[in-house]
Amino acid sequence: GHGRYGYVQDVKSKLNGGKFACKVMRIVCHNKHQITRMMQSEIAIVSRLRHPHVVKMYGSYTTPKECGMILLPIAEGTLEDLLRRWSSNRSWQEAKKHVIPWLGCLSSAVAYIHSMGVKHKDIKPSNILYKGHQIYLADFGLSVQFDPQNLSTSSGVGGTPAYTAPEAMVDGKRGRSADIFSLGCVFMEM
């Protein structure tokens, strides 16, 4: 897939032949420091997370032109792609057998990242991957770390308006409840 500053590609380990996904962020001159900081933050966050429904990082690299993360799984696609396919094919029976289990998987993933002191800040179908019958929370590029014992909010813009909690839209304040709101929007779409 492709994003504003980067892309994801399949890669193969020269050591053991293992296949991985590589998320690459191009470092462009006009915002070089911002992109590098954002990717370093994402690397620091994702490297600590270990949950069956959160992408796993196996390594990272930085060159003068790009930063990258080596991740699993190699997804078949995003939840956004799958929802579009189900809708266009009217595959409601197929959708029903996935949706209920995935609600629990995603709820568990969000509860876990919050317990690890991470606010995602951009939960939406295009940041949720699927492979077979499994689903994974991905793209921690806007995520921030917080003290899990402190219920205060953080500020800052970011996220996708259609999935952003009202309080975050009004004053930019985002507590953990903003992630829950975003997840609820995803559930409604499912």
UniProtKB/TrEMBL annotation:
Keyword Ribosomal protein: no
Superkingdom as given in the UniProt entry: Eukaryota
Family matches, as Gene3D superfamilies: Transferase(Phosphotransferase) domain 1
InterPro entries: Kinase-like_dom_sf, Prot_kinase_dom, Ser/Thr_kinase_AS
Start and end residues of each Protein kinase domain: 1-190
A single MF term (Gene Ontology): protein serine/threonine kinase activity
One record GO biological process: mitotic DNA damage checkpoint signaling
Name of the protein described by the UniProt record: Kinase-like domain-containing protein
Organism whose genome encodes this protein: Lophiotrema nucula
Record lineage: Eukaryota, Fungi, Dikarya, Ascomycota, Pezizomycotina
